[in-house]
Amino acid sequence: MTITEISAGEYESLFSPLHVYGDVPFTQLNADKAEDVDYLSFADGKVRFGIILGKRDGVLRSPFSAPFGGFSQRGVQNLQNMEAAVKQLQTYAAERRLGILITLPPLLYDECQLSKWVSVLIRAGFQPTVDLNYYFSLSRFPDYQKIIDRSARKNLNRSLKSDFRLLHLDSSNRDDVARASEVIRRNREERGYPLRMTFEQVWQTVSRVIRADFFVLEHEGDDVAAAQIFHVAPGIAQVIYWGDIRQYSELRPMNYLAYALFKHYYGQGLRILDIGPSTEDGIPNYGLCEFKENTGCEVSLKYRLFWN
After folding, report:
1. What is the 8-class DSSP label of residue 46?
2. Terminus-to-terminus CA distance in the chain, angstroms?
3. What is the Cα–Cα distance from 55 to 87, expressed in whole angstroms?
């Protein structure tokens, strides 16, 4: 197995990534967030794998500006080929005196192949951090009221009486995107959570490289909650941000919003709504975990692996 640095154009022609964060347009949009970007291919007579790495602070990172990255591959690959590719990547990094940090997608994106990558990387000496990533299987939506927790059912029934109105905004309209983003900004500020994307970064991403949906939940003419959602893989949409305004929390807008989004994407024929992790460096936010579990979400492991 040999490793080769190739151009962005060559990489794009060779690989169909598992998810949108592994493609070239997304990488090029965010290239200024790394000191250098390497497009690598791995071959043994046939091209087997590729990976995009951004160098920052002495570490080669996949991703360098996204929820997850990892390897792209041409078809299903066996363990021996995967092990050979990782060995070559370690040699490549060692020659440059760099570490490697790979955050894989949650296992729900391809449980078979991603589980093999976890095994290969850990056996190669990568140190894992494991996060809990929540998702909703949309095929379960027809039985939604039966599968959710009793307290969540009570809150949902209360919210259904609160005269909410869900608006699906125009993601090609800057003002509509700004409207949803302002609700998210207020939510994060009120709760002391970081906002990792500025409005301009959001706008550039959704206007240029990622199909996105924006929703606002209204109550008596006021915006009380919002959601920003990316279409990241076939059959899978991902909640990037969602949240409510604190003064309206007693009306249970988040219970309504979760229900309404599950209903929307079930009607669109998607398989999964990826809600995202509720842990930071493996440590759970118990309140978020409980809310997601009570509203019918399941858990898929998400691995971040470091080698130096």
Report:
1. S
2. 21
3. 19
Q: Residue ranges of the alpha helices (H) in 132-197?
A: 144-147, 150-160, 174-191
pLDDT tens per residue, range 63-110: 999 999 999 999 889 999 999 999 999 999 999 999 999 999 999 999
Residue 299 one-letter amino acid: V
Verify cis geometry, omega within 30 degrees of 0, for the bond prior to 17. no
CA distance 259 to 252: 11
- Taking 70 as the pLDDT cut, the residues of the chain under it are none
Residue ranges with strand state E in the chain: 2-6, 36-43, 47-56, 59-62, 72-73, 99-103, 127-137, 164-168, 212-219, 222-233, 236-244, 272-277, 279-280, 283-284, 298-307
CB 183 within 8 A of CB 245: yes
**How much is the pLDDT for 196?**
87
Cβ neighbour number for residue 275 with a 10 Å cutoff = 21
Q: State the pTM of this model.
A: 0.94
Give the sign of the dihedral formed by CA 203, CA 222, CA 162, CA 185: positive
Pairing of β 127-137 and β 298-307: antiparallel
